[in-house]
Amino acid sequence: MRVLLLEDNPSDAYLTRRSVIQALPDCLIDLATNVKSAKQNLEQTVYDIALLDIRLPDGYGFEVLEKIVAEDLKIPVIMLTGTGDEETAISVLRAGASDYVIKGPGYTSKLPEIIQFALQSYREKLHERSELIHVLYIEHNQVDIDLTTRHLKQYAPFIQLTIVYSAYDALNILRHEKNKEKFSVILLDYRLTDSDAFDFVKTVRQEYCIELPIIMITGHGSEEIAVQAMKIGVNDYLSKSGNYLLRLPTGIINAHQTYILKRKQLELIESERKYRLLAENAADVIFVLDMEFNYQYISPAVKRLRGYEPEEVLRQKMSDVLTPSSIEKAYEVFRAMMASINQAVDKSKIVRILELEMIRKDGSTVWTEVKTSLILDDNGNASGILGVTRDISVRKQTMDELRKLTRAIEQSPVSVVITDLNGSIEYANPKFSEITGYSLEESKGCNPRILKTGYTRDEEYKKLWEQITSGGEWRGEFQNKRKDGSTYWENAIISPIRNSLGEITHFVAVKEDVTEKKQIMNELIIQKEHAEESDRLKTAFIQNISHEIRTPLNAIVGFSSILANSDVPNEKRKEFIKIIENSNDQLLSIISGIINIATLESGIDKIIEKETDLNNVMRNVYAQLKSSKKTPDLVFDPPVLPAKKILLITDPVKLMQVLVNLVGNALKFTSKGYVKFGYSIQDNIVKFFVEDTGIGIPNDMQDLIFQRFRQLDNSSTRKYGGTGLGLALSKGYVSLLGGKISLVSEPGKGSYFSFTIPYKPVLSHGSGHEDIIGQVPRLKTILVAEDELNSYYYIHQLLTMHENRVVRASNGLDAINRCKESLPDLVLMDIKMPVMDGLEATRIIRESHPGLPVIALTAFALEADKKLIMETGFDGFIEKPVKPDKLFEVMMKVLNNIT
Ligand code: ADP
User: Fold this and answer.
1) pLDDT for 235-245, tens place per residue?
2) In this structure, which residue's CA is closest to atom 22 in ligand 1?
């Protein structure tokens, strides 16, 4: 028996020792004089009982009691308390002590009894809560059997005996595997009838490999045998001295407990071995660091992770292991772990997982996930770090890849929707929200049928589902509606997503908004139709043009050749000349129309604004178009134009052209009734109108006729003639002038064309000269510079008709010389001439004859060219071919010094 005595007072220790030996004669007593050494004793030795003083130099006996209870050491504890301290006495019992002794006078004398009692009752208590201790008892002496049985029954009923009389019987029992487990202790009398006790022990140990504790009972004074027996594997012995039975229960318990302890230790070693084996073979790297981050252990897997042998790693510093930023991170996490240690209920559960970049032997790095926890010592203080490192480079790469893909999907210009097998939306990318107006939250769980418009037929949806549920891909077009109800078109590819087992788990739809594309396509189709239409129109136009040109040309050629024949009577001759003149006009108007439309459409046409008298314009239009024909009647509206000038700033030429076109058309398309035209001024707008009672224009043609070459009747058997350019030109000119043209018409009843121009009135009315229209120059000397004889001859005819003197110059240089000789009143200067052109000649004449008016004769039809000519310093210009009226009008203006 072994007793732990905690007592710092030497005399008390002495007296207590004596009492204990009285109660337990063969016991060994370990004296501890402070708490610390008592605890140490408990760790090293198995005690049967402890006697603990309460007050000690380094603490209280309570602490030792606590340890015994906490660690379930199964020792009865007797506390030695101070006098009169009943409260303490109660609290020691509560804390788990078996009994207490108050250190009163002579207290040691009571001790033996108390110790006996404590042991006894403790065993019983132990027995109550623990299993029985089965003992195989080998004894042939019936008296001993009876005595032992009786004693144990009384004092240690939890010890159960299975009694056999011979070694033979015992071995028979032990041979069965299940019986090995059944017994806790073998109790063996040294003297056996059928065998040598030593042989028996050897058989048990070596043959049967039974580790069970064996206690041998020897005769009195046979210690030598006992020593021999213990050498071959007996665990304890009892010699049959007077009160050996008293010591029997403790011996059995001790042997049993020692055995169990040893087994536990073995198990511990085994499990540690297993763990080590695990660590050594794990794919993950297992490591232990001390608190200064020095490696204490690292498993061999580090070789694969970092390329280093474990021995090399053990010598490495953190800076050899981690990249600088990862060291930072590791230290930070470590500090946080240490900071949380005091709050933690279970410190062993302080675990951190972090991602660190490690340096490999070849200099490359590898991303790892490190799971760390603290290693705690017995006092619960952190003594190191245990960690597991795992290579996550593949995972990280996968994650990066995944992140990239996710980003691609999120930024994709097409919408991506993932649904489960029922079609409920699990994911939709931002583009989807942008197109549909449904946020991801709103659309989650919804079926994409929220977008349905009913355009796609149910059969098509059925086909779609059949296709994708059978693993195929569906491509097609949907018309869908947004959250706000508006519709859009999309091109979709829907396909199944399979898991690793090949089962379909989801569907993914990739859809492109093709609304705009569709629109563009439609526009393209329209444009193509337009182009084709325009092509058709051009063909029709060319046919028209050739017809239009041929008609007057035929007349000119035909009648000219008749006129060449001298025996045409005078009356007829005049008629033919009239026809030729009319044809000429017709031809010119066709050609100028074509040139005008080309100029207008190329965008180089500019308006040239000047002071213009509206009434004069109206009169000119009238004068140009009034024919001898009675019907239709061409009238002003109101019928009489006011004599007063209405002056405004506009381009009179363009304005005239528009009016002549509209009135001309009205006359052309009206066979009975009237054509009225006029204007009104409202605020800052002048509104012109031309009304007729002609054939009218159907509704569907009213816009089209403003397009070039468009006519009501495009067939070649056209009744009315014309090129189809007039209205296109008019519309272009009106818009250049700053106004708008419009039309109201009813077939069979007539048409009403109107257009506006801005009214920019001239406030001061400067020029007071009379109207020069219809006047002709007379009795003047006129120098005509013209290289072409026919042209010169024509002008010469016109001028000499009115008794003017005409001098000819055949080029620019000639003109300069003739100027000096003939002192002309006026020069008509052709621009394009050999030797020196008209521009150069005019500049020189200007210098020598300042004040001498020079009028340009030009074939340039462009307004811009006119402007250039005017800038050169001409006083006026006349377009070729020269019309007599125009020629005289310009000459009169220049001669009267009107600009
Ligand atoms: P053109 O008269 O040379 O054919 P326009 O562009 O001036 O070309 O006119 C285009 C077409 O519009 C005409 O061919 C004619 O069919 C129709 N149109 C123009 N003015 C009238 C009108 N006053 N009454 C009936 N139809 C008209």
Assistant:
1) 888 888 767 88
2) 666
